């Protein structure tokens, strides 16, 4: 059981790493974060930048350090965020040539992240699973 928990930790860390890095980078360079949101036409950009930071860092904290419903909520939040951000930032259907190929690859990689977060959410909500509520695990041990 401890080996399985280690693998789940490694998986969750891997999924959260780009979001934690991005959120921390935006927090440390808020003007750059605002400029990024303005680049994508999101108005007001400062509000969107703050929201992205909260979603990215908050979602990571929930996925990494919470259990059960809270972990699932963080995973689903990051999945939904990724869907929206991918549609906005990787609109391959508006491109042609190699730019389209590279952008489509990024789009599909982000779809894989969404799939990973869906798996984390499903596992966190599974009664008795590694991510289930502690109370449920204690009941099963008794």
Could you walk me through the main structural features you see in this protein, from its secondary elements to its overall organization?
The chain has 142 residues and is an all-alpha fold. It is built from six helices and no strands. Helix 2 (30-39) crosses helix 3 (45-65) and helix 4 (68-89) runs antiparallel to helix 5 (97-125). The longest helix is centred in the last third of the chain and has 29 residues, at 97-125. The radius of gyration is 17 Å and the shape is globular.
H and E order: HHHHHH
Radius of gyration: 17 Å
Query: In this structure, how is the largest beta sheet organized?
Result: none
- N-to-C terminal Cα separation, in Å? 17 Å
Query: Using DSSP, what is the number of strands?
Result: 0
Q: Structural class of the secondary structure composition?
A: mainly alpha
Approximate helicity band: over 70%
Tally of separate helices? 6
**Residue fraction in strands:** under 5%
Let me know the average pLDDT: 91
Kindly report the oligomeric state of this protein.
Answer: single chain
Strand-helix topology:
Blueprint: H1 2-28, H2 30-39, H3 45-65, H4 68-89, H5 97-125, H6 134-141
Give a short summary of the structure.
The protein is an all-alpha fold. It contains 6 helices and no strands.
């Amino acid at each position: 059981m401890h080996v399985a928990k280690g693998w789940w930790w490694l998986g969750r860390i891997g999924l959260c790493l780009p979001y934690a890095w991005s959120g921390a980078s935006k927090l440390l360079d808020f003007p750059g974060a605002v400029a990024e949101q303005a680049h994508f036409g999101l108005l007001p950009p400062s509000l969107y930048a703050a929201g992205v930071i909260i979603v990215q860092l908050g979602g990571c904290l929930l996925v990494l350090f919470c259990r059960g419903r809270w972990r699932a909520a963080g995973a689903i939040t990051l999945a939904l965020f990724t869907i929206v951000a991918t549609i906005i930032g990787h609109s391959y259907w508006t491109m042609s040539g190699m730019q389209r190929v590279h952008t489509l690859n990024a789009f599909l990689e982000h779809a894989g992240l969404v799939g990973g977060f869906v798996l984390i959410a499903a596992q966190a909500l599974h009664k008795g699973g590694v991510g289930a509520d502690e109370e449920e695990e204690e009941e099963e041990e008794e």
